[in-house]
């Protein structure tokens, strides 16, 4: 059963989607990450269809073939986009799957609209706590820098991220936040063929996509410090960091890591920290976040604010390590498909 590419009109967006499987199958909605599109789910859509599920993968607002209206982005707006999409498709409840930014959106949708989501799967993503493992979260807040970087290096960025191009082409800080990628030519991963690379290069060549990507990171992730406070009912209070505060950390002359005031963890959703999603939740994580390329570990990682956020929000949580880096649905499609199908059937 093939994957169809088509459009659906919601109340405010013309959304491009990839769909597969029987229309009467249980609906599974998959939300892509940055800097990808719904194309990233091609392996999962095929596996879901073969198993009798109805798979729906929309391009997020501002990406792929979906409208790019230019409005300032918030997590609440992106979650509403998902609900509007479900309404337009006539889907009352679904299983929601999200990777990277798609996981941020999926979390917000599930935590605010739990009656619409039956199960939740998060793939190498996060809920509300940002970690220093991703310095680009701070970089995006610095005015003009991301704009200059993408204007100069949009093609090179994709080729470095996906195809093993020498990362030195992207330069150094403060313009380039991806310095953790080693310089030198690396072999192109076998999960990215010519068609996939061409798709991602083309999809990220549109300046409107850069504009929306910047809006996602700059405005939808308002960083806060979480401070212990036993006088509060929740035991904590929050200090809002302005965009300039965050930018100043990134632009510190010695690097933000050398600034003693730099908070290694920031929370961009303190309004959600008291909430829980009580239904079955799966967390698949790779070496980028979990620190290992080992496959099949079942323990829920813990020990710092980033890792601890998952148990905080999901009382019915199960986790699996995946033997890949970050783009797990493509890197390790077989194992990810197996985990998703077992999760959907209740066997995991």
Features:
348 residues; alpha/beta; Rossmann fold; eight-stranded mixed beta sheet; two-stranded antiparallel sheet; 34% helix; globular
Q: What do these coordinates show?
A:
- By secondary structure, this protein is of the alpha/beta class.
- It has one domain: Alpha/Beta hydrolase fold, catalytic domain (Rossmann fold, 3-Layer(aba) Sandwich), CATH 3.40.50.1820.
- Helix content is 34%, strand content 18%.
- The chain is built from twelve helices and twelve strands.
- Strands 1-2-4-3-5-6-11-12 form an eight-stranded mixed β-sheet, sandwiched between helices. Strands 7-10 form a two-stranded antiparallel sheet.
- α3 (101-112) links the parallel β5 (94-99) and β6.
List the helices and strands and how they pair.
Layout: E1 4-9, E2 14-20, E3 27-31, H1 42-50, E4 54-58, H2 75-89, E5 94-99, H3 101-112, E6 117-123, E7 129-131, H4 136-139, H5 145-163, H6 194-203, H7 207-219, E8 224-228, E9 236-240, H8 243-250, E10 265-267, E11 281-285, H9 287-290, H10 305-313, E12 317-321, H11 328-331, H12 333-345
Parallel strand pairs: 3-4, 3-5, 5-6, 6-11, 11-12
Antiparallel strand pairs: 1-2, 2-4, 7-10, 8-9
Helix pairs in contact: 1-12, 2-3, 5-6, 5-7
Total number of helices: 12
Count the domains: 1
N-C termini distance: 26 Å
> Radius of gyration, Cα only, in angstroms?
19 Å
Order of helices and strands: EEEHEHEHEEHHHHEEHEEHHEHH
CATH architecture: 3-Layer(aba) Sandwich
Strands, total number: 12
GO molecular function, one term: hydrolase activity
Pfam families: Abhydrolase_1
Domain AB hydrolase-1: 27-328
Keywords: Hydrolase
């Amino acid at each position: 059963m093939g994957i169809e590419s088509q459009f659906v009109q919601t109340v405010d967006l013309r959304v491009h989607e990839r769909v597969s499987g029987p229309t009467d199958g249980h609906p599974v909605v998959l939300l892509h990450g940055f800097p990808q599109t719904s194309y990233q789910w091609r392996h999962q859509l095929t596996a879901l269809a073969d198993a009798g599920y109805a798979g729906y993968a929309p391009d997020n607002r501002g990406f792929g073939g979906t409208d790019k209206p230019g409005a300032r982005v918030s997590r609440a707006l992106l979650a509403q986009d998902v609900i509007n999409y479900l309404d337009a498709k006539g889907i009352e409840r679904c299983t929601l799957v999200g990777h990277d930014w798609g996981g941020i959106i999926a979390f917000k949708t599930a935590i605010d609209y739990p009656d619409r989501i039956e199960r939740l799967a998060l793939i190498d993503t996060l809920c509300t706590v940002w970690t220093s493992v991703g310095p680009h979260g701070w970089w995006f807040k610095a005015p003009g820098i991301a704009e200059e970087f993408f204007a100069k290096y949009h093609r090179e960025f994709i080729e470095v991220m996906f195809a093993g191009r020498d990362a030195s082409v992207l330069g150094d800080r403060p313009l380039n936040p991806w310095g953790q990628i080693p310089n030198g030519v690396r072999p192109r991963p076998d999960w990215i063929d010519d068609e996939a690379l061409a798709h991602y290069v083309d999809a990220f060549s549109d300046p409107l996509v850069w504009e929306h990507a910047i809006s996602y990171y700059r405005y939808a992730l308002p960083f806060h410090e979480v401070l212990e406070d036993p006088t509060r009912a929740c035991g904590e209070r929050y200090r809002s960091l302005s965009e300039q505060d965050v930018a100043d950390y990134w632009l510190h002359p010695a690097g933000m890591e050398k600034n003693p005031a730099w908070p290694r963890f920031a929370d961009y959703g303190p309004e959600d920290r008291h909430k829980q999603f009580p239904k079955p939740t799966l967390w698949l994580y790779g070496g980028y976040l979990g620190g290992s390329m080992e496959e099949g570990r079942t323990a829920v990682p813990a020990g710092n604010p980033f890792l601890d956020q998952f148990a905080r929000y999901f009382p019915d949580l199960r986790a699996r390590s995946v033997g890949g880096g970050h783009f797990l649905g493509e890197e390790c499609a077989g194992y990810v498909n197996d985990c998703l199908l077992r999760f959907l059937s209740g066997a995991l």
